[in-house]
Design a protein that fits this description.
Mean pLDDT: 74
Helix content: under 10%
Organism: Gongylonema pulchrum
Protein name: TMEM131_like domain-containing protein
């Protein structure tokens, strides 16, 4: 769970518009980030000068091969801090090097452990199971 998947969606505009010329098309990305396993259905709203277009969307949330558990539903006081180690399973036969971490929300700060200089990290930071 929590493994994003990006898919391109093509929109064709056969009429006049201020952003897409008649007969032209545009694309935008839709990211599916499930927070639970199973089928998830929702509605995508595209607002335009010609009105709102609705599209039914559906995706299937599956467990992560890396066994990363979602961190959802936590409650903290204002300016509170939660330190929750993220455990990562390496399903590959070779060493997995974590080079970046990020979140889909803007209210959470994540960082890799800092040991020594920015370019030299301890071997304990590599995941090899």
């Amino acid at each position: 769970m929590g493994v994003p998947r990006q898919q391109e969606v093509r929109i064709h505009n056969p009429t006049a518009s201020t952003t897409v010329n008649p007969g032209d098309a545009t694309t935008f990305s839709v990211v599916f980030l499930p927070r639970q396993e199973g089928t998830i259905e929702n509605v995508l709203f595209v607002h335009s000068s010609l009105g709102t277009f609705t599209y039914s969307v559906r995706g299937k949330g599956t467990g992560s091969a890396y066994r990363i558990r979602p961190l959802v539903g936590g409650k903290l006081p204002v300016n509170g801090t939660l330190i929750s180690p993220v455990q990562l399973h390496n399903p590959h036969p070779t060493t997995l090097r974590v080079t970046e971490i990020y979140t889909s929300g803007g209210d959470l700060h994540l960082e890799l452990p800092q040991i020594g200089s920015q370019t030299q990290h301890s071997a304990t930071l590599w995941v090899s199971l």
